Amino acid sequence: MFLRRFILFISLFSLVVGIIIGVSKSGFWSILNYVSPYHFLILCGSFFGTLITLERVVTIKNNLIHFLPVVNGSSILFFLADSPLIANGLLIAGGLILLGMYSYFFFQHKDKIHFIFILSALCYTLALIFYYFNESVLSIQFFELFFLMTIAAERLELSNFLNISENKKDILTILLILSCLGVINDVMYGFVLIFISIWFILYDIARINIRSKEPHKFRGYALIFAYYWLFLHGLSFIFSKWLSYDTRIHSFFLGFVVNMVFAHISIILPAVLKVQFTIPSRMYYFLWILFQLVLLIRFISSDKATFFFPHSTFLSAIIVLIFFATNGIHAFFRGKKF
User: Fold this and answer.
1) How do residues 195-222 score in pLDDT, each as one tens digit?
2) Which spans in the chain are helix H?
3) Is the pLDDT of residue 9 over 80?
4) CA 194 from chain center: how many Å?
5) pLDDT confidence tier of residue 159, bands split at 50, 70 and 90
6) CB atoms < 10 A from the CB of 93, how many?
7) Which stretches of 27-165 are DSSP H helices?
8) Lowest mean pLDDT among 7-11, 19-23, 84-88, 154-158
9) pLDDT at 305
10) Cα(247)–Cα(302) distance, rounded to whole angstroms?
11) Rounded CA gap, 184 and 179, in Å?
């Protein structure tokens, strides 16, 4: 249990560093500028890569391999030590570890869900390899595919509780495979993302959660908004001339991914730490609604290059940090073991 807490601490420390760098890049302040080129590597790899690997490794009943997420997590120390090649090497090793785990699960289950998980780990590893060869655009693209595949596979796992036909699941699988061709054509990629978002809006369990009691209702709203942000992200590729680069990138990584975090954090932390905790729903709703509003202001101001852009970036960062701090305090210090 100490090891899990230590790994979580490392990943949350990476989150804080990544957020500080992101706010600095917006022009709000000037902190840790020497690591600013690694902003997305720290958040996608050192933070999310560690967290997702931890989430998966705890399902394997072998304590000897529970240290594996440390490989990803330790990269943050080398980024801060200005040794990006070592850090990137550790993240690539972490990607291969994730690929190995997903392959292990696939050969056990041999289903489309675990096939998609394998694709996600492959995209993660490719993102880091492309970065190593100074292909940052492709690196960001494959990180995006990593998140898309991971989230889709997890949502499909939950769809087993719904009466969704295999044909509909096959449609989503085909769309996800087609999304890998987005590196070839932006417009095609945009349309594929729009179709994926529509599939989730129509068939995901979120539509049932909204009609349930808390905390399921909150999760449902966060999921639905995540799919709307994914829809907007798809539009940003089709109408790229009219939308800023910040809107294109962060409608996915902040709009889609962070809303997914809002929806799942109260599930992930108890599963990893084996604790139960309750946070008042009004606290979740307040931070979540505020985040959506600030995100809209950010995108509008980035399109118009107004004074509000760095300030909205700072506010969105503060909201995310408060959200994680609230959940972390309850999980680490107020949670009841089960």
Assistant:
1) 999 999 999 989 888 988 888 999 999 9
2) 2-26, 39-41, 50-57, 69-73, 75-80, 84-109, 112-132, 136-158, 166-179, 186-203, 206-209, 216-238, 245-250, 257-273, 281-304, 308-329
3) yes
4) 18
5) confident
6) 16
7) 39-41, 50-57, 69-73, 75-80, 84-109, 112-132, 136-158
8) 154-158
9) 59
10) 7
11) 10
Token code pair at residue 227: 């799919």
Rg of the chain in Å (alpha carbons):
19
CB 28 within 8 A of CB 57: no
What letter represents residue 330's amino acid?
H
Give CA–CA dist 192/240, Å, rounded. Answer: 15
Question: Are 149 and 176 a contacting pair, CB within 8 Å?
Answer: yes
**pTM of full prediction above 0.90:** yes
Domain boundaries in the chain? 1-163
Q: How confident is the model at residue 63 (pLDDT cuts 50, 70, 90)?
A: confident
Two structure tokens written together for 67: 């240290």
Structure token pair of residue 302? 């980035």
User: At 189, which amino acid appears?
Assistant: Y
Is there a contact between 66 and 58 (Cβ–Cβ < 8 Å)? yes
Count the Cβ atoms, other than its own, within 10 Å of residue 211: 9
Question: Backbone phi, then psi, for 275, in 5-degree steps?
Answer: -135, 160
